[in-house]
Design brief:
Blueprint (H helix, E strand, L loop, with lengths): L2 H14 L37 E3 L8 E5 L7 E5 L4 E6 L4 E2 L2 E2 L1 E8 L3 E8 L10 E7 L8 E7 L4 E6 L7 E5 L2 E3 L11 E3 L4 E7 L2 E7 L6 E2 L4 E2 L6 E8 L7 E11 L7
Antiparallel strand pairs: 1-2, 2-7, 3-4, 4-20, 5-6, 7-19, 8-15, 8-20, 9-10, 9-19, 10-11, 11-12, 13-14, 15-16, 16-17, 16-18
Length: 267
Amino acid sequence: MNKKIFHFCLAALMFCTAPGFIYSQNPDVPEWALPASQNHTQVSPPKDFHRASLTVNEPIGIFEGQSDIGGALVKGSSSYDPGAKKYTIVSAGYNVWYIRDEFRYLWKKMFGDVSFAANISFPDSLGFDDRKALLVIRQSLDDDSKEAIVALHGAGMIHLAWRPEKGLRIKDMEYRIGSRGGLPGGKSPDDLVTNHAMRIGIEKHGNSFALFVSMNGEPMHQFGAPIQLNIEEPFYVGIGFCSHIPDKSDTAILSDVILENKAGMVH
């Protein structure tokens, strides 16, 4: 090989694998769907961009069915270990945000009020910072459905999010919790170390949706103010996960899931 071509190819390889550079060789991945990095800003999909959700009506644990919402480029999967009370969800997906979503969703149809909570962990510590494990109440299985979400991100952020109407952009309230000197990690006591929540939950009481959190195993408590959203009955309630990379899967584990058909039971 010509030395100039070799050195050019080597330099390109080093650039493309540098920290903060996330790329895809899959021609089906639109540029807007690539995750944010030092070299790229993720933006909202075009208003007319949709993919059909892929649904399997097979029960899993307490849920009636499962769907790849938004038809992610890599098919998702899930399993349930009844002895450990543990759901393992494998999913790709560009995001659960903007005007449409892509994630693996385990769901059941419900009416009335809801108390819903789960422990969350990410087996791969090197996954993308903005991957999301989710507890979701949705109007439908469409990729742009009206919905209320509580989520734990890979980097530790917690949010209560909602899409106020079908096809509109998601809004949220975000919470980042950390400590200076009170948690292991950090190079000095002045460094802020993120505290990752152990358990999150959502309560639906009429049209009111509230976030509940247990940071370290203490009793769950409401976190922030509730939001108001009218979702018609029946609606979908379930757990989900999105890797935040459109053509690469990751894994989340949601365990000790409680789902009650009444308010005031999040624990």
